[in-house]
Amino acid sequence: MILILRAYFDTVRHHLLLEKVARRIKDDDVMHLLKLMLTASGKQGVPQGGVISPLLSNIYLTEVDRMLERMKGSTRSGKYTYVEYGRFADDLSC
């Protein structure tokens, strides 16, 4: 099975990303600036080519990485197909 994540930058939900960032950033001015940057591209997604987009991608996809790492561990020596993946900013392939 091959899993490919595509059009990531176009589909990021702002409220979820802002919640993830707010867990670590306690500065209201930084959060306001980030919200302005995100909403400049519309109601969802992050600006493609934006200098902060790769960082935001990594923050948003951290939970996906953790889930895939758990899958790697559980498939390493079992009856299921071994899971391996690679992620590069906004691209993921399994």
TrEMBL record:
Residues 1-94 form the Reverse transcriptase domain. SUPFAM superfamilies: DNA/RNA polymerases. GO terms for molecular function: RNA-directed DNA polymerase activity. PROSITE patterns: RT_POL (PS50878). Keywords: Nucleotidyltransferase, RNA-directed DNA polymerase, Transferase. InterPro entries: DNA/RNA_pol_sf (IPR043502), GrpII_Intron_Splice-Mob/Def (IPR051083), RT_dom (IPR000477). Belongs to the bacterial reverse transcriptase family. This is Retron-type reverse transcriptase.
